[in-house]
Amino acid sequence: MTAPTTPVASTHASTAASTHAPVTLAAVRGHGTQNDFVLLDDRDGRLDLTAALVARLCDRRAGVGGDGVIRLVATRHVPDAPDATAGTPWFMDYRNADGSIAQMCGNGVRVFARFAQRLGLWDPATGPLAVGTRAGVRTVAATEPDVGSGPWFTVGMGSVTLPAGPDALATGGDAQVDVAGLTVTRPGLSVDVGNPHTVVVLAQEQDLEAAGLTRAPDVTPLPPQGTNVELVVPLGEQVAADGTVVGRLRMRVHERGVGETRSCGTGAVAAAAAVRAWGGPQAPGTWLVDVPGGTLRVTLHADGRADLAGPAVLVADVAVDVAALDA
Ligand SMILES: N[C@@H](CCC[C@H](N)C(=O)O)C(=O)O
């Protein structure tokens, strides 16, 4: 990891109460299966993180570049933190690249844990890290050693809800989705993973490749808060080394507030839950989800909870010239 070459003003200097903007803002770049983030250490809650600042930080040509910003902040400094998170010291304040707030980020929360580890706020040897999010508390554990893409972390993602129920499964979904490049309108299934998703199953990989995700798919009816759209192709089942049957999916995603990204952790969970629901009781509980940026593993439990496993990597320290961003 590259050390900053210029003196870095801590985010602590960037107080809402301060009359002087900092010269620089210390940031870290990280990613989980190439879903990439700008991470900010604002543990004292002094940073005035406006939507405009988020959008400028995430700009890939004039900023640092990322699919979103993750602010690490003490939960007591987050006015809209859900009550359930009150007992968790650290909160992941997640923002999409357009500056909008999202409830949860499955890739981001692993990268958040790696960031907390690096800051000395979490030692994986002591047990899982409980992270406050706007979707509630999520737990992150370091579970697998480096197998080529860095160590893997497993997130307890909480409950996954298919609000549409069995009727929608029978008809293929509770929404209609039009995707550029695909000639036919497809059914989509709404899945709540703390944030909203609409999952569309495609029969063949050619359809996945033909889909145009430079603009958001048209979802009807569109949920009031918008939705993330996952296009998935089931690839069948395989037997893992321990003898268990594991399903495999290929997925592309258009994220609310961002556009097409190379991975989405909550989206992978939504996709696995939808495909399993369509597949019925015989469908596997564990799914490998191939995304353009790598592979994630989703485990669906009988009680409706899910676990998400994958890598989390920190790649750079950045001293952000805030005045230059504004320019
Ligand atoms: N990429 C994230 C999801 C980020 C939030 C999403 N765009 C939303 O608005 O809900 C993930 O890995 O889950």
Characterization of this structure:
By secondary structure, this protein is α+β, with helices and mostly antiparallel strands. The protein has two domains: 160 residues, Roll (Diaminopimelate Epimerase, Chain A, domain 1), CATH 3.10.310; 139 residues, Diaminopimelate Epimerase, Chain A, domain 1. 17% of the residues lie in helices and 39% in strands. It contains six helices and 18 strands. The chain has an 18-stranded mixed sheet that branches. β2, α1 and β3 form a beta-alpha-beta unit. The longest helix has 15 residues. The two termini are 28 Å apart. The N terminus is likely disordered. The site of the ligand N[C@@H](CCC[C@H](N)C(=O)O)C(=O)O has 19 residues, from α2 and α5.
Q: TL;DR of this structure?
A:
The chain has 327 residues and is an alpha+beta fold.
Overall mean pLDDT stands at 91
Helix content: 10-25%
The CATH topology name of the largest domain reads Diaminopimelate Epimerase, Chain A, domain 1
List low-pLDDT spans: 1-18
Main structural class: alpha+beta
Number of helices: 6
Q: What small-molecule ligands were found? A: ligand LBFN2T5F
Q: For the record, give the distance between the C-alpha atoms at the N and C termini, rounded to a whole number.
A: 28 Å
Largest sheet: 18 strands, mixed
- CATH homologous superfamily of the largest domain? Diaminopimelate Epimerase, Chain A, domain 1
Written as H for each helix and E for each strand, in order along the chain, the element string is EEHEEHEEEHEEEHEEEEHEEEEH
So, CATH architecture of the largest domain? Roll
* Whole-number tally of structural domains: 2
Q: Sum up the overall morphology in one term.
A: globular
* Strand proportion: 35-45%
Q: For this structure, what is the CATH class of the largest domain?
A: Alpha Beta
Cα-based radius of gyration, to the nearest Å: 20 Å
Q: What is the number of E strands?
A: 18
